[in-house]
Amino acid sequence: MKNRVELYDTTLRDGAQSEGISFSVADKLKICEKLDELGVHYIEGGWPGANPKDAEFFARAKSLKMRNAKLVAFGSTAHAGTAASKDKVLKGLLKSGTGVITIFGKSWDLHVKDVIKCDLSENIRMIEDSVRYLKSRGKTVFFDAEHFFDGYEDNKEYALKCLGAAVKAGASRIILCDTNGGTITSRIFEVVEEVKAAVSIPLGIHSHNDCGMAVANSVAAVQAGCVQVHGTINGYGERCGNANLIPIIATLKLKLGLDCVSDIQLKELAEAARYIAEICNMKMEDNEPFVGNSAFAHKAGVHINAILKNPRTYEHIDPALVGNRRRLLISELSGKSTILKKAQDMKIGLEKDTEKSKTILKTLQEMEHKGYHFESAEGSLELLIKRIMKKFKDFFELEDFRVIIEKRRGGKISTEATIKLKVGKEVEHTASLGDGPVNALDTALRKALKKFYPRIAEMHLIDYKVRVLDEKEGTAARVRVLIQTQDKSDSWWTMGVSENIIDASWQALVDSVEYKLLKDSKK
Length: 523
Prior knowledge:
40% of the residues lie in helices and 20% in strands. By secondary structure, it is an alpha/beta fold. Strands 1-2-3-4-5-6-7-8 form an 8-stranded parallel barrel, surrounded by 7 helices. The protein has a 3-stranded antiparallel β-sheet with strand order 11-12-13, with helices on one face. The protein has a 3-stranded antiparallel β-sheet with strand order 14-15-16. α5 (120-136) runs parallel beside α7 (156-169). The longest helix is centred in the last third of the chain and has 21 residues, at 501-521.
């Protein structure tokens, strides 16, 4: 490994500015612990004094036993016309108790004149006085040069003077911020090289993603000489977000050979991204580089055939390096290679070029033509293949079901599902109320089966999606229903397709339950 690159995470502050994210103090503490496990070097906890939540976080964070990371308090320079020693913001930063403090200051003369409305020389004084004061109190100080790249283009001399004031006062790092996210990658590289020649202390990069270049800009800045990279997990942040630390970490480590996390920590990358997405209550995109569910998913038959011979043909890294896995998707584009590999994964003996593999492929293609989408429902896929192979026997048989939806006076809606099914020779007849037809059916089905299969109580529905397949048909169109179910150790997707949304939901529910029972029968 070459020289170490410092990872500076600002999920707890910049990430919290993302539309749709609101952290509790408990959330922030959990994320902090996960970032520490991942090997992040600096965690920006927030702006102490800006709100009660951040004040409570810094108070409670003192009890965290972090092994890798240092907690950082964030704030601004002293206000115009105010001595640093008298400034309330700086006093709040000191009160946080962190050993490292990051302060931002204006480096674009436009902001000095139009936003804080003071003389250019006063802004220089504010930067120097603030850094010196915090330094005199025993703190390590990082200076965020806000809007630096825009300032550099408009008034290079003044932008560099702002950096010089922070260096003179004792800052340990100068962070060059592309706050508006409007600088392109080649220019980032050029400017960092020029600034590195003019500044005597190490540089960092803080990129925003307004041009979709934040990750590339961060990597280019490191190549040009920056030793510290700022970003957020999954790229959360205001507007278009911040630089996404997940692909940055993987790229620095695997593509540039730079020391930022250990090999073991790198393997936790996918898990950390999903864990923090869950806390943020944000859906993680399937096509997220390195760690997304589709990052190493292969669909075309030609691709899969090559992957089975040599994974390097269509994968730029081994997915296990970042804690991800390879997925071979079944669809009408699949070839026999995909079917054979799926059968192998399911421990079904299926020799090449047998009639069974041809039958499976033909059935899959016909069903996808009708609207099924097996790459999204691997639970239903396994049941289908095992049924064709005659290696699966249904755990129960439906006699009939009925769903009644009634709207009463006052607007209250009630839903009741009645199910009659057979397990072996025994018939079970149950009814259940629900919040809606799918919930009522789900509850009635479990009620009918629980005495035969007690472990069904472990599973619960966690997601439900409906897609209209032929919009031109209006309310008579076929729909595809996808259901995600979870138990103590696993989650799986199942699917149904029908002109009737209740029937499609029933198909998906039945597959969900049968997949659970099949899974448990293997243990």
